[in-house]
Design goal:
- It is built from 5 helices and 6 strands, in the order ααβααβββββα.
- The protein is α+β, with helices and mostly antiparallel strands.
- The strands form 2 sheets. It has a 3-stranded antiparallel β-sheet with strand order 1-3-2.
- Helix 2 crosses helix 3 and helix 3 packs across helix 4.
- Bound molecules: zinc ion and manganese (II) ion.
- The site of manganese (II) ion has 8 residues, from strand 5.
């Protein structure tokens, strides 16, 4: 598991200069939510850095995704979420609260891909399982 103490090394290993803003962005993903939108990150860190803009946060997190520090997850037209877990993994998606729960499958997947996949060069394999998380099921029971 990543720790906030690892942040300076993560940034340096990615070839990036360590700045308090960059540390705060990664720190938010490590400490609060592993899958956040750029806006959620902005809402949290602009309390500490009032002069930071949404677009700076957005550009910084996009840059982190390009250098492999985070993984960008897109679901249809929804805002991208940025995942601090860059290991190959999949997600359970709660339709009610939007929470994402990581899960792992063996790699390569044990099932055979259909004939339609022949000749297709697979770069990424992501399973998205939609449903209602335990906390939401509990609260709807009342
Ligand atoms: Zn939920
Ligand atoms: Mn994840």
């Amino acid at each position: 598991m990543l720790n906030t103490a690892d942040i300076p090394k993560l940034l340096k290993d990615a070839g990036l200069r360590v700045t308090p803003q960059r540390e705060a962005i990664l720190g938010f993903l490590i400490e609060h939510t592993k899958h956040a939108t750029a806006d959620e990150i902005y809402q949290s860190i602009h309390k500490t850095f009032p002069s930071i803009s949404v677009s700076t946060v957005y550009n910084t997190i996009k840059h982190f995704a390009q250098v492999g520090l985070v993984k960008e997850i897109t679901f249809g037209d929804n805002a991208s979420r940025f995942d601090i877990n860059v290991q190959p993994h999949h997600h359970l998606v709660c339709k009610k609260c939007g929470t994402l729960i990581d899960f792992y499958l063996e790699k390569p997947p044990s099932f055979a891909l259909p004939p339609e996949a022949s000749g297709f060069e697979i770069e990424d394999f992501h399973v998205e399982v939609k449903g209602i998380c335990p906390a939401c099921r509990e609260s709807s029971r009342g």
